[in-house]
Sequence to fold (558 residues):
Amino acid sequence: MKPEELETKAAAEREKQAKFVATIACCASAGCQLPGTLTTTTDFFKQKVKEAGAADKVRVVPTGCMGLCSKGPIARVQTAGQPDQLFVELNADLGGKMVADYVKPVAEKAAPKPDAELAKHILPASDPFFAKQTKVVLKNMETLNAESLDDYILAGGYQAVRKALTRMTPEQVVAEIKASGLRGRGGAGFSTGLKWELTAKVKGDVKYVICNADEGDPGAFMDRGVLEGDPHAVLEGMIIGAYAMNSTNGILYIRAEYPLAVERVERAIRAAKAAGLLGKGILGTAFNFDCEVRLGAGAFVCGEETALIASCEGKRGTPRPRPPYPATKGVWDKPTCINNVETLANIAPIITRGAEWFAAMGTEKSKGTKVFALTGKVKNNGLVEVPMGTPIKTIVYDIGGGTANGRKVKAIQTGGPSGGMIPAQYFDTPVSYEHLQQLGSIMGSGGMIVLDEDDSIVDLTRFYLEFTVDESCGKCAPCRIGGRQLLTIVDKIAKGDGTRKDIETAKKICRAMQRASLCGLGQTAPNPVLSALKYFMHEFEARLKDGKAAPAPASVTK
Fold:
């Protein structure tokens, strides 16, 4: 494919879609396609549209996650010149009514006539869940045919690759990403542009770009959602990154527990190759880049870069000391750059719209938007995207709608097993790398779990420790032994057998793990313990058999 053929392909798809009066965008993410909800798939709607005699006027497409998972299954009806209508909590009867009473009249250019029951399942466009969000990474998810390259091109897809390959040098691409302020969305928050620059400067006959889709945090599904709903956006980011770093090889490391994501990524790779957007001579230029999918076995530690590299090589997924860093000695000892799914999905919009546009969103040190998996005791759970710097309370109360059961919100837990608990009195805090760190938590990859007044912080802390102990690779003693000792102490307290001395011992072990563990798993595993003790000491003290904990020595608390 030559650069100008992108416009030709887009025009052809636009003409093909123009004959349809309406489109039913059916949420075909893993969440809305769970067993028990299979009555409202694209095949179901295609059959209903056919029965209504409107198959030549109504288009039915599978999309990615529409965000509002608590109200799934979901379908969006799009009509030219009219506001979209979102139908939620559908079943077979309601889906049939939607087609007969709403879609068919629209296709016949008549007024829709939903009855009172169906009207209850129409969500207004003004709903705060959507109105309070700013979508960059998720912008295509609600409307794009997740399985169509032509749909992606019609939405402006691969124009960023075209711009980078035909109008920019690799150095200019790196400079643009640096200027945008984009930081890695996988958790550490390292500058993406700087990481690319370091890899670009390393000499090597072969270099690798790896997409880290080993999403392992309990309650997190951001990366899964993007891979299922907009796989070409991730591929486009990888191609641009490869061009900037002079790489010709790519790997998408996806956990095997995401079969739908794997299927759609592999479909996208095949389509891109067939169109000349992957492989040799991309868009008629001299640039070559190809990529493949590697499946992860669900090991949480493989989210760490060097453990992921070992897994890609077919070895046991354990981390190694750094230096050497992956930029100089990565997969098969070749220079390697690893970015996570959300980071790569931000690349094309930055190249297309410019670094200044992206940097205008967010805070001084945390630019752009962030996708969160909002879960737990919250009314509206699902995928949300907000500008960095948005107050926690906006996410929890305005977008999330507060708790579903009417209880008071006690806290949120961010950053998964490596994060911390943030009590409700700090919900005015802006969401950013620096602000969350000041509270003793982290951004992580974007999990945000809402806790209500009935949730036990002690029990939740024990749960996260059980997870990290189970997922530890066991290579280094601070994590292997320290994590087990911490879990033993917290379990002892949870059962009512703990003492004040146990609290002091737990803090000492936490500090030792933070300083001496080999990788991020062990270094951050104490975060839930430390934040829980900082903000919810009274819950631990209530379970001690000898009363309140004694103040710890200054060397331990500071």
In short: The mean pLDDT is 92. The first strand starts at residue 22 and ends at 27. The longest helix spans residues 477-494. The chain has four domains: 17-124, 156-357, 371-452, 457-557.
